[in-house]
Design a protein that fits this description.
- It comes from Cellvibrio japonicus (strain Ueda107) (Pseudomonas fluorescens subsp. cellulosa).
- InterPro entries: Cas4_exonuclease, CRISPR-assoc_prot_Cas4, Dna2/Cas4_DUF83, PDDEXK-like_dom_sf.
- Pfam families: Cas_Cas4.
- Keywords: Antiviral defense, Exonuclease, Hydrolase, Iron, Iron-sulfur, Manganese, Metal-binding, Nuclease.
- It is built from eight helices and seven strands.
- With 210 residues, it is an alpha/beta fold.
- The protein has a single domain, classed as Lambda Exonuclease, Chain A, CATH 3.90.320.
- Strands 1, 2, 3, 4, 5, 6 and 7 form a seven-stranded mixed beta sheet that branches.
- Helix 1 runs antiparallel to helix 4 and helix 4 packs across helix 5.
- The longest helix is centred in the last third of the chain and has 20 residues.
- It is globular and about 65 Å long.
- The relative contact order is 0.18.
- Bound molecules: iron/sulfur cluster (SF4).
- Iron/sulfur cluster (SF4) binds next to helix 2, helix 6 and helix 7.
């Protein structure tokens, strides 16, 4: 386990990493202000996770499948629930598997979330996790992810960023990305267009007052 300690005593939910990746404001609204609104995307994601969660542990062909595994890693200040952990009964190797609604993305955030799960497992079960997997529902594809040093470093930095955001209690301004806002479940509560309009009107007022 890498040496890593956060100043604040608040645990970061694993899901906050994903929300932070999408938009820091969304992360703060959900985890600091407890705001949540369902839209098509989140509803679909929840159905997928309910299906994954509903299974009981089973063993097939030398692999034990544990579903809906709760984790709480005190050294990392992380908490959450893993979709699936696969345990090879011959080698003892344990592998977190994360289910995603969409398809593989260019950004690293799915891998960062998976790595955070691996770090939780390592701390809780005193093991070393070498790799994990992401199952992309839309394209029915399983991607193997190596939990290497560089991914670990990026993940620890990301966890820290989220922890800082949540401990300040400050909700960041809307992001400047209309496409992402359109797919965001909090758009009606966040009103990013209103902010953009206000911003442009104060910009225009600023020009005329100079
Ligand atoms: S609507 Fe846009 S700015 Fe607001 S929380 Fe969602 S993604 Fe962020």
């Amino acid at each position: 386990m890498m040496d890593f300690k956060l100043d604040d005593s608040r645990q970061v939910p694993l899901s906050a990493l994903q929300h932070y990746a999408y938009c820091p404001r969304q992360c703060a609204l959900i985890h600091n202000e407890q705001v949540w609104a369902e839209n098509y995307h989140t509803a679909e994601g929840q159905i997928l996770h309910q299906r994954v969660d509903s299974g009981v542990p089973e063993t097939r062909k030398g692999i034990r499948y544990e579903r809906g595994v709760s984790v709480s890693a005190e050294q990392l200040w992380l908490t959450g629930k893993l979709d699936l952990v696969e345990i090879d009964l011959v080698t003892g190797e344990q592998k977190p598997v994360e289910y995603k609604r969409g398809k593989p993305k260019v950004e690293d955030w799915d891998r960062i979330q998976l790595c955070a799960q691996a770090l939780c497992l390592e701390e809780m079960r005193n093991i070393q996790v070498l790799e994990g997997a992401i199952w992309y529902w839309e394209v029915r594809r399983r991607e193997i992810v190596s939990i290497d040093e560089s991914l670990r470093d990026v993940t620890l930095a990301a966890i820290k960023s989220v922890q800082i955001l949540l401990s300040t209690g400050v909700t960041p301004l809307p992001i400047d990305d209309k496409k992402r806002c359109k797919g965001c479940s909090l758009i009606d509560l966040c009103e990013p267009d209103k902010f953009r309009r206000d911003k442009s009107s104060s910009y225009v007022n600023g020009i005329f007052s100079e």
